[in-house]
Design goal:
heterodimer, A: mainly alpha, 3 strands, B: alpha+beta, four-stranded antiparallel sheet, 55% strand
């Protein structure tokens, strides 16, 4: 479409919305404005559209101001921070040398292989053949307890001529 | 009638015998020098470690069935008495009271829990008569 000639009302009508929103190229904006300046009908439509646009803008602005965004921004902020942390880790990982990654993988594999399986069920210690438990002991003289570890043999050694008062 | 009483007595005696603990007391003389009894060869290293002497000879042995909750007195060579009273079986161990008397004096009075068929030892050291060695009393209990 050539903008050098005067545009017709039909051509301008198709461009009016874009004209009001200033979305047309400068030359076309100028052509539409020139036509509207000379055409009362198109000028009226332009004014209506402009008024409507301003009303809508004010209405949207008022609704936007009425919105409670106090809970939105902290969440958005946290999301941004998490994203930043991920980006930072990716950046650090990219700087880790390949041999470091290989070493870490090898260490993890060793730990996995060497990690114990399920805890084996503990078996109660088998009593030794001569295991003896002294629950009480009194003596009129000196006595000494001796125990042999292998079989648990216990010896209570008393002194026949010990001091009857002591132990 | 008489026959019935005799049978009942025999049955009661058999029951008492069955519900008793077999106690074996072996008395051993331990000395610094001298031979050891062949019967004690297997035990000698253990006795040697526990008592410290080199020669071990049996000087008395007695085996008796002891009724539960009843005290039995075993005479030990040298005039002492070993009183054994089996009290109960607990976790495969014999719970008993053992008292070693030297006249009216209790050298040892103890409550022990000995593994069934196990052996425990009492030793009487003769400190002032080292040449005489020591007397070892081996107590074995079997349910």
């Amino acid at each position: 479409m050539s903008v050098a000639r005067v545009m017709t009302c039909g051509e301008v009508e198709a461009l009016l919305d874009a004209f009001v929103d200033a979305e047309l190229p400068a030359a076309m904006l100028l052509a539409v404005a020139r036509h509207a300046g000379a055409c009362t009908a198109c000028d009226a439509v332009v004014r209506e559209l402009t008024t409507l646009r301003e009303v809508v803008e004010r209405s949207v602005a008022a609704e936007a101001e009425a919105l409670d965004l106090s809970r939105v921004w902290p969440a958005v902020s946290q999301g941004i921070e998490r994203h930043d942390v991920r980006v930072e880790w990716r950046r650090r990982l990219r700087t880790v040398p390949a041999w470091g990654v290989a070493l870490a993988v090898a260490a993890s594999a060793v730990l996995w292989v060497r990690s114990p399986g399920p805890e084996p069920q503990r078996v109660a210690a088998r009593p030794r053949p001569n295991q003896t438990v002294i629950e009480r002991i009194d003596s009129s003289g000196h006595f000494e307890l001796r125990r042999e570890r292998k079989n648990g043999t216990t010896l209570i050694m008393v002194s026949a001529d010990g001091d009857p008062a002591g132990q | 009638m008489v026959l019935g009483l005799a049978v009942a007595t025999v049955v009661l005696l058999a029951a008492a015998h069955a519900f008793a603990l077999e106690v074996q007391i072996t008395t051993v003389r331990a000395a610094e020098h001298g031979p050891s009894d062949a019967q004690l060869i297997d035990l000698r290293p253990r006795l040697r470690r526990l008592v410290g002497y080199r020669s071990f000879q049996i000087v008395g042995e007695e085996r008796r069935r002891c009724v539960w909750q009843t005290s039995e007195a075993f005479t030990i060579p040298g005039g002492r008495l070993l009183h054994v009273m089996p009290r109960a079986m607990r976790d495969q161990a014999v719970v008993m009271r053992v008292k070693l008397m030297d006249g009216s004096r209790a050298l040892v009075d103890t409550d022990v829990r000995l593994q069934n068929r196990g052996v425990m030892l009492f030793g009487v050291d003769q400190d002032s008569h080292a040449a005489q060695g020591a007397l070892i009393i081996m107590l074995r209990a079997e349910d």
